[in-house]
Amino acid sequence: MALTPWRDTSLVFGKPDLRREDYDEVIACLDSRWIGTGPRVARFEQAFRSYVGAPAVVAVNSGSAALQLAVKVLGFEPGSEIITSTMTFCATANAIVHAGCVPVFVDCERDTMNLDVAAAARCITPRTRAILPVHFAGRPCDMGAIMALARAHNLAVIEDCAHAIEATIDGRHCGTLGDFGCFSFYATKNITTVEGGMVTCRDQALADRIAVLALHGMSKDARYRYSDDGFVHYDLYEPGFKHNLTDLAAALGLHQLERIDESWKRRHVLWEYYRAELSDLPLILPLPTPGNIRHALHLFTCLVDDRETRITRDEVLRGLHRLRIGCGVHYRAVHLLDYYRRTFPDAGPFPNADYISERTFSIPLSPAVSDQDASDVVRALREVLG
Ligand SMILES: *Cc1c(COP(=O)(O)O)cnc(C)c1O
Fold it and tell me: Whose Cα sits closest to atom 15 in ligand 1?
């Protein structure tokens, strides 16, 4: 069937919801001439720390940096194994590799798309040092089971919270349940600083070590070495990274963080609308959420149900593109990507991740999606799958 576009403009996937107050804060930051790491980063850290209820936090310049620093600060000997889900973004696995460790991939559950904890338990060896679960799409992992497994084997737990800023289990935020939480403020995430991230951890001493590693490994107060208190000499303890967040980036995030619950509520309206309007299409929609967890509603993932249609996922992607509806693929599993396939040819089998990789696509869910946009998404899916 020939698809005829009707929208004048493309609906961009993951469009950020930026407002006057965000622009004004960015301008105020520029006007202040303090654009690097400084007072706005400190405010953003403080606000984020109190939002998630973490003992300590460090702002960094990406979610990938957050993951790299969390793995690095643990100081594992080279070749240590870290168990993670293959159903994630490549950055999760890359962080493990960059620290000289070995990613041990585990399948996800078919319905939650989160780490299969029983499969993780079967992968533990004498070299296992940590588990790195991903709260996929914003749905919290089974942290009770993960923490019990970690405690039984003396493993660290690093939570990949890139999708999960608002996610809670029994009222406690993801990122405060394991040893570290790693958040992302990439352009498409629930809050954006264009590029940015945050590490949460159990105490200030650990946060201080991460902050040092994030700024070349220079002594702690080097962040403020150009302040009007006069130049401060620094020392170098170990070769670190350039992973610090800037005030200009933090300026963009400050008011989005204040609006975070309002944005979540808007996504919740869209979420319920999609669930209702798409229920009769040959799609497998996200699972309902149990009452004790709060889903961060980062991604609305649909699986093309090939028991009911012969249209493939890639045909759906092409059709939506033709109708000017932006969409994403979260994800083709990491073990299927060239580097990881070559480097870990014996990993697997991962039937659930393979199943999802072939069928998944995500539709626009940002608070910048209007009612008209959402109805266009539904209409487009009806035309493509009809
Ligand atoms: C976005 C993302 C990251 C990386 O965050 P960046 O800020 O883009 O570096 C890591 N893990 C997952 C699951 C992500 O979605």
Answer: 162
Cβ atoms 84, 331 nearer than 8 A:
no
Cα-based distances in Å from 359 to 132, 303, 312? 25, 5, 7
Task: For residue 123, give the DSSP letter.
Answer: T
Provide the token pair at 338.
């060239």
CA–CA dist 138, 190 (Å, integer): 10
184 DSSP β-pair partners: 197
The Cα 14–Cα 195 span in angstroms is 14
Could you give the 3-state DSSP secondary structure of residue 276? helix
pLDDT for the residue numbered 1: 60
The model's pTM: 0.97
Give the span between the Cα atoms of 265 and 261, in whole angstroms: 6
72 catalytic? Reply is no
Structure confidence by residue, pLDDT tens digits, 254-305: 999 999 999 999 999 999 999 999 999 999 999 999 999 999 999 999 999 9
From 189, 220, 242, 265, the catalytic residue: 189
Give the C-alpha distances (Å, rounded to integers) separating 340 from 97, 104, 185, 346.
Answer: 10, 11, 26, 10
